[in-house]
């Protein structure tokens, strides 16, 4: 992340004045960096985002739980900016968000925390190019932190099935990855455990492809997106001694009947 900031800080030194929002460029660069962190495993990575909100999520077994999520305080001397009103969700974004919330798969004892620079509230789907994405950091009562990411990706008939340009997000089952195939909600789901990077991060993934070509994918990591932003995509140490969601829970999410386009 420091490399991104340093590059951007010096990129304009010899240039004439231009109307560029450097903070926005940094945020966009960070989102791209974090999205790519699992590309080598064949998956789609978490990106980052920060918002200030108070939302009701239906999580785990029990009553709706009010989650208070706040952005970190501004540093001294930071300029006050006026953000644009958020666009209302589309019908598909709302349907996917509701399906995940109503499923009550995510345990209620986990706190959802926005990830830096992610464009929507935790576990709230947002269209990004050809895919609908939802993300959050998850924190347990002991302060252990991890990440969660869910994606529903449109089928592109013009894209090759494999190789460069492919839309296939299914990770490889070659060592050191381990895979198992299970059925969730009538869907055949691949569950994959992926050791990632050099510092002990492990990503759990669940994915399936629907008959119409739509890909449905969910993942969790034992490293928070905040830590990834600080350490880099392949050198992030774990921020929890155990994953805060299981492969079975990811499979349940991917198997939800309304996880479709």
Account of the 3D structure:
With 261 residues, the chain is an alpha+beta fold. It has one domain (2-71, 88-254). The chain contains 5 helices and 10 strands, in the order H-H-E-E-H-E-E-E-E-E-E-E-E-H-H. It is globular and about 40 Å long. 38% of the residues are buried. Mean pLDDT is 76; it is low at 7-27 and 37-76.
At a glance:
This protein has one domain. Helices cover 20% and strands 26% of the residues.
Which descriptor suits the 3D outline? globular
Helix content: 10-25%
What is the arithmetic mean of pLDDT? 76
Question: So how many helices?
Answer: 5
Beta-strand content bin: 25-35%
Spell out the helices and strands N to C: HHEEHEEEEEEEEHH
Q: Supply Rg.
A: 18 Å
Which structural class should the secondary elements be placed in? alpha+beta
How many DSSP E strands? 10
Number of domains: 1
Query: N- to C-terminal separation?
Result: 35 Å
**Stretches with pLDDT under 50, minimum 5 residues:** 7-27, 37-76
Give the biggest sheet. Answer: 8 strands, antiparallel
List keywords for this structure.
261 residues, alpha+beta, two-stranded antiparallel ribbon, 5 helices, 26% strand
List the helices and strands and how they pair.
Layout: H1 2-11, H2 22-35, E1 53-57, E2 65-69, H3 91-102, E3 111-113, E4 126-128, E5 131-139, E6 145-153, E7 178-184, E8 187-196, E9 201-209, E10 215-221, H4 225-231, H5 247-254
Antiparallel strand pairs: 1-2, 3-5, 4-5, 5-6, 6-10, 7-8, 8-9, 9-10
Helix pairs in contact: 1-2
């Amino acid at each position: 992340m420091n490399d991104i900031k340093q590059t951007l800080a010096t990129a304009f030194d010899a240039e004439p004045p231009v109307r560029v929002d450097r903070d926005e460029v940094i945020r966009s660069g960070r989102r791209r960096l974090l999205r790519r962190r699992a590309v080598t495993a064949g998956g789609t990575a978490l990106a980052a985002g920060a918002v200030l909100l108070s939302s009701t999520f239906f999580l785990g077994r029990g009553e709706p739980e009010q989650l208070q999520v706040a952005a970190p305080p501004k540093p001294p001397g930071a300029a006050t900016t006026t953000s644009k009103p958020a666009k209302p969700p589309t019908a598909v974004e709302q349907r996917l968000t509701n399906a995940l919330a109503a499923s009550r798969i995510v345990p209620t004892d986990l706190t959802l925390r926005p990830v830096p620079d992610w464009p929507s509230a935790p576990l709230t789907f947002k269209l990004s190019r050809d895919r609908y994405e939802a993300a959050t950091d998850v924190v347990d009562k002991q302060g252990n932190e991890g990440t969660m990411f869910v994606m529903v990706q449109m089928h592109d008939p013009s894209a090759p099935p494999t190789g460069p340009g492919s839309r296939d997000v299914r990770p490889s089952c070659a060592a050191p990855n381990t895979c198992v195939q299970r059925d969730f909600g009538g869907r055949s789901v691949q569950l994959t455990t992926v050791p990632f990077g050099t510092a002990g991060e492990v990503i759990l993934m669940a994915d399936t492809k629907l008959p119409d070509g739509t890909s449905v994918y969910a993942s969790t990591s034992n490293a928070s997106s905040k830590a990834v932003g600080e350490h880099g995509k392949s050198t992030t140490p774990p921020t929890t001694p155990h994953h805060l969601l299981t492969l079975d829970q990811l499979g349940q999410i991917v198997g939800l009947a309304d996880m479709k386009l």
